[in-house]
Amino acid sequence: MGNLADLVRDVAERLGAVGIKPEGPVQLSPTAIPADLAPRVPDELRSVWDRGAWRLSWRDHDEERLGHDARHGGIWFLSPAEAADEARTYAGILEDEREGADRADVDLAARSWLTWTPFHRFASGDLLAVQPRGEVVLWQHDLLDGGPYYHGLRLGRTLGGFLDTWARVAFAEPRDWRKVASTEGAGLALEGAAWTLLR
C-alpha cells in the first residue's frame, strides 16, 4: 500500500479546494490488536493499524458539489479494539439468530462474519471488511433479517488498491454500492454513480 497519510491528506486538501470543510484528518495512535481478532487480520490491514489508522469525514447534502451520489463520505478506520468489538457483536447476533433465520443466510453469515475483519463502519450499520486473502468486501449488517442483497460485494482486490480508487471520489458513500461494485472482479467501477472525480 502507498502512503495512507498522504492519501488522506490529499483528499482533505481537494475537498477544501471545492469548498467542503472535512472533519479531520486525524491519525489514531497505534494500538495492539486484540488476541481474538489477531489470527484473521490480513497483513495489509495489520500494517495500517501498526502505523496508526486515519479518520476523515465530510458532508455536503445541500450543494452536492461532488455530485448527486456524493453527499457525504469519509474514511473512518476502526481501531483494532473497535473492530474486535464489531466482530464479537456479530458473532453474538449469529448465535442469537441461528435458530430463527434462514439456513442459507446463517451459513453465509458464519462464513463471513466469523472470518472477515471489519475496518470501517457506516452510519447505517454496514461495514467495510477485509477477507482473509486481502480482498475488500461490504459487510451487510442486516443479513439475517432480509437476506444478502449486497453482502459480500467485492470492492477491491487489496486494501491499498481499494483505498486509492475510493479516494478519487473523496471516500464518498454511494447511494447503492451495487452500482459501483465491478462485475468483472474485485474493484470499484466509479462510472456507476453520479459523482465527481477529484483526481
How would you describe the overall organization of this protein?
It is a single chain. With 199 residues, this protein is α+β, with helices and mostly antiparallel strands. The protein has one domain (4-192). 33% of the residues lie in helices and 16% in strands. It has 6 helices and 7 strands; from the N terminus they run αβαββααβββαβα. Strands 4-5-6-7 form a 4-stranded antiparallel sheet. The longest helix is centred in the middle third of the chain and has 18 residues, at 80-97. The chain is globular, with a radius of gyration of 17 Å. The mean pLDDT is 90.
Q: Which short descriptors sum up this protein?
A:
199 residues; alpha+beta; 4-stranded antiparallel beta sheet; 3-stranded antiparallel beta sheet; 6 helices; 7 strands
Outline of this structure?
It contains six helices and seven strands. The chain has 199 residues and is α+β, with helices and mostly antiparallel strands.
**What can be said about the biggest beta sheet?**
4 strands, antiparallel
Mean pLDDT: 90
Sum up the overall morphology in one term. Answer: globular
Structural class designation: alpha+beta
Strand content: 15-25%
Any low-confidence stretches, pLDDT <50, length ≥5?
none
- Helix proportion: 25-40%
Strand order of the largest sheet: 4-5-6-7
Q: Total strand count, please?
A: 7
Please tell me how large the radius of gyration is.
17 Å
How many helical stretches?
Answer: 6
Q: Give the terminus-to-terminus CA distance.
A: 18 Å
The number of domains = 1
The H-and-E topology, N to C, reads as HEHEEHHEEEHEH
